Amino acid sequence: MRRTQWVEVAFSLLVFVGLIVLFQFPSRIPPFLALMMPLTLGLMLWQYRTMDEFRRARYLKAWAASGIVGMTAMTGLIAWGVFGALDGSSIRNNVQLSVWLLYIPWGISLFTFYAVTAFLYRRDTGG
């Protein structure tokens, strides 16, 4: 498990440096995503493989809750955009939803994952 934690730290630093570079060169987002998505999937599979049965159950439950909450938030943003465009006022028709609003459901989803993981850990360990 210790080796997995070192890989997590190295990956986090790589993502942090990558985000700093992306803020300076936004045109590099596609190659960054093409590199990070397989690395993230590989790290997640490695983490899952090193877990015991109870950790795996907590991990899967947290991912399920995170997905439900994240998709609900994303659906809310889409509904806001669709129904905002159907409104008759000319002010609303000229307002476009920003891509930066996607960070709201992503952030909510990540927070939900951590909160559910912490809750399940405390429930299972009695602490």
From TrEMBL:
Lineage top rank: taxon: Bacteria
Identification of the protein by name: Transmembrane protein
Organism field: Deinococcus puniceus
Spans through the membrane: 7-25, 31-48, 60-83, 103-121
Keywords per UniProt: Membrane, Transmembrane, Transmembrane helix
